[in-house]
């Protein structure tokens, strides 16, 4: 999915809309009522925001629900991604990147601050890893490609209805960021 329209970006800027996209990525199709129960917000609010997302093609109608009275929603692509090219507006690129980073940081901080009953195994397996690596821009791109290749079997598994809900499995966020440290020289 390639987004360049600033209005479409604003459609993504609402936190509930991002929550809805994430929820539909893990349990689609779903009605506004189901989304509201999971997210702890009103059905009316979910319905409004789902319609706004549909207006820009982020979600689509998946037909009536089980009771035939409610509309179900789904993602048009089971693995939605936002792709930006070098030709895209720097303002658009910054807005999308900022939105993604802020959302991931909120999720990371919520996990750190949670005092729920997460199992020891999840606490040990999840969490943070930081490192400083000496590499070129090309090597950073290669590392990102390798990282995505490493995740690929797990991403494909999440699309499989057979594997998705086996006991002990949960959806987990992964976030990679390579940010070069400042140097004396402007361009190295």
Short structural summary:
It comes from Actinoplanes subglobosus. The chain is mainly alpha-helical and 188 residues long.
Major sheet size, sense and barrel closure: 3 strands, antiparallel
**Rg from alpha-carbon coordinates:** 19 Å
The assigned CATH architecture of the largest domain is Orthogonal Bundle
Mean pLDDT: 80
| H-E string | HHEHHEEHHHH
Helix tally equals 8
Q: CATH superfamily of the largest domain, called what?
A: Winged helix-like DNA-binding domain superfamily/Winged helix DNA-binding domain
Strand content: 5-15%
What class do helices, strands and sheet pairing give? mainly alpha
Overall outline: globular
Number of strands: 3
Word description of this protein:
- This protein is mostly helical and 188 residues long.
- The protein has two domains: 126 residues, Arc Repressor Mutant, subunit A, CATH 1.10.10; 60 residues.
- The protein is 52% helix and 6% strand.
- The protein has a three-stranded antiparallel β-sheet.
- Strand 2 and strand 3 form a beta hairpin.
- Helix 3 packs across helix 4.
- The longest helix is centred in the middle third of the chain and has 24 residues.
- The chain is globular.
- The two termini are 33 Å apart.
- The mean pLDDT is 80.
Strand and helix layout:
Elements: H1 6-12, H2 15-26, E1 30-31, H3 32-39, H4 43-55, E2 60-64, E3 71-74, H5 90-113, H6 120-125, H7 137-159, H8 161-164
Antiparallel strand pairs: 1-3, 2-3
Helix pairs in contact: 3-4
């Amino acid at each position: 999915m390639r987004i360049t329209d600033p209005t479409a970006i604003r459609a993504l800027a609402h936190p509930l809309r991002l929550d809805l996209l994430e929820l539909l990525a893990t349990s689609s199709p779903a009605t506004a009522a189901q989304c509201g129960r999971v997210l702890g917000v009103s059905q009316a609010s979910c319905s409004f925001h789902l319609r706004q997302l549909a207006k820009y093609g982020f979600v689509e109608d998946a037909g009536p629900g089980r009771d035939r009275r409610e509309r179900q929603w789904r993602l048009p692509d089971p693995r939605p991604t936002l792709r930006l090219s070098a030709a895209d507006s720097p303002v658009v690129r910054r807005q999308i990147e900022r939105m993604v980073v802020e959302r991931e940081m909120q999720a990371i901080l919520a996990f750190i601050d949670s005092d729920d009953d997460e199992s020891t195994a999840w606490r040990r397996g999840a969490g943070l890893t930081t490192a400083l690596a000496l590499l070129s821009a090309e090597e950073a791109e290669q590392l990102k490609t390798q990282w995505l290749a490493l995740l690929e079997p797990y991403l494909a598994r999440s699309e499989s209805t057979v594997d998705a809900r086996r006991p002990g499995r949960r959806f987990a966020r992964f976030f990679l960021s390579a940010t070069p440290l400042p140097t004396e020289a402007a361009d190295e």
